[in-house]
Specification:
195 residues, alpha+beta, 5-stranded antiparallel β-sheet, two-stranded parallel ribbon, 7 strands, 44% helix, binds iron/sulfur cluster
Length: 195
């Protein structure tokens, strides 16, 4: 399992973690697939991996472009996505068009080639294990925030992974000593009050 923040929730990184390394991602995603609230988002469409298409809320197919090009094309864009489109003859008279594709002749869906990994990350968000790991992550992030803002540890001075290791060890030691001094100070105050 790998716990990370939204910065690690890109499609490419999730694809690498899940598909290549078989690591369970406890990572929140910056998900633009839901679009505007009043319009249908990706979750309103049903993915059918066998037919390689989506079924829209009106039950129509939203599929890949199967034009016969002279030179066969992969259909994968520079953004590592595949474009799926509904047909204009389905969307034109559709009663749901205003909630689905109000400004274009037909609905278009951009699906990442790593969408299966993204789906896994989405589904994990509702598990008990994810809630636990999110709480653990927040505790660590609070410490990082404290290091950055209060102790002004906003950049590394030493180079390379070993340098980073040493600097973090020192910073964490200082942070713990600071905490310890505060706690000891408090207990001494209590002693003074009770004696
Ligand atoms: S507008 Fe097109 S894609 Fe959207 S629900 Fe209607 S038929 Fe389906």
């Amino acid at each position: 399992m790998l716990i990370g923040d939204t910065g690690y929730g890109t499609a490419d990184l999730l694809g690498w973690l899940v598909e290549e390394k078989q690591i369970t991602p406890h990572i929140p995603m910056f998900d633009k697939s839901e679009g505007k609230q009043e319009l249908f988002g990706l979750s309103d469409f049903t993915w059918d991996p066998e037919q390689d298409h989506y079924l829209c809320p009106a039950g129509k197919s939203v599929g890949r472009n199967h034009r016969n090009f002279k030179n066969k094309r992969s259909g994968i864009t520079k953004k590592n996505t595949i474009i799926y489109r509904a047909s204009q003859s389905d969307c034109g008279p559709c009663p749901l068009k205003s909630q689905c594709s109000p400004t274009t002749p037909a609905r278009k869906i951009e699906r990442s080639i790593h969408e299966a990994a993204r789906d896994l990350a989405r589904s994990l968000k509702h598990t008990e294990e994810y809630a636990l790991s999110r709480n653990a992550r927040k505790k660590v992030e609070m410490l990082f925030g404290h290091l950055k803002r209060i102790m002004r540890f906003d950049r590394l001075r030493l180079r390379g992974p070993n340098g980073a290791d040493d600097e973090f060890l020192l910073a964490a030691t200082v942070q713990n000593l600071r905490k310890m001094a505060k706690l000891l100070g408090q207990s001494n105050e209590n002693l003074l009050v009770t004696t």
